[in-house]
Automatic annotation (TrEMBL):
Keywords: Membrane, Transmembrane, Transmembrane helix. Pfam families: PHM7_cyt, RSN1_TM. GO terms for molecular function: calcium-activated cation channel activity. It comes from Rhizopogon vesiculosus. This is CSC1/OSCA1-like cytosolic domain-containing protein. InterPro entries: Csc1-like (IPR045122), CSC1/OSCA1-like_cyt (IPR027815), CSC1/OSCA1-like_N (IPR032880), EF_Hand_1_Ca_BS (IPR018247). Residues 232-256 are annotated as: Disordered. The lineage of its organism: Eukaryota, Fungi, Dikarya, Basidiomycota, Agaricomycotina. Signal peptide: none annotated.
Amino acid sequence: MPVTAVNNSSPGKTGLDRFNYGNIAAENQPRYSAHVVLAYIFTFWIYWNIRREMRHFITVRQLHLINPAHSKSVQANTILVTGIPVKYLSEPALSQLYSHLPGGIAKVWLNRDLKDLPSIYDRRLAACGKLESAETSLLSTAAKLRRKELKKADGTNESFESADPERNVALAERLVPKDQWPTHRLPAGFMPFSLPFIGEKVDTIDWCRKEIAATTGLLIKGRQTVADESLSLSEDVNGDGKVDRQDLNKQTYPPL
């Protein structure tokens, strides 16, 4: 700022404008050299800081990578490879392909197309949670009814008194009338969730048991299909002497 302001002025430059770059008069052009020198100084200073911090980053990163707590983790010993040719879409082929890596290959996982299996598993998990809540509610209701019956019986019926509905679900189901069993409403039409007073009202316990049985069957069938596909190796289908993209439509393994 002193270079552009001291003993130097341009027409129309007042106030803070006297300190900017454009205030240098025509007869004081050599003063621009001060700006050039400062530009070089600040440029090299920034470059030096970037280089120093980069060296520090590389050192810290290498120390982290060789740290036993990290180097022995699954994350540090697993790589994701995409775009694999069809002829290598099998565990033996990939193990042989990468066998030259230091330390060898411990395990090869192929990313299979599970299709609807994750959503079916989530359905079964949700049904199990709903069934657990419904049976807990049923047992609680049965225990309340049993206490009322005990008060009426006044301890005269020993067999009834020894029965514990909280330990016997079948007994709880007999004690609780059907109209007092837990119920819920199914989603109406295309809606992904249910709303009060809308949708079919079903018995929660019966519905959950049927849902768990249905989803378990679908999971068993789907897992068997995935297992059968994993045993099928790529082969030359069209008989041209090589396995390439023309054989892809016959492969059970989808490309990664």
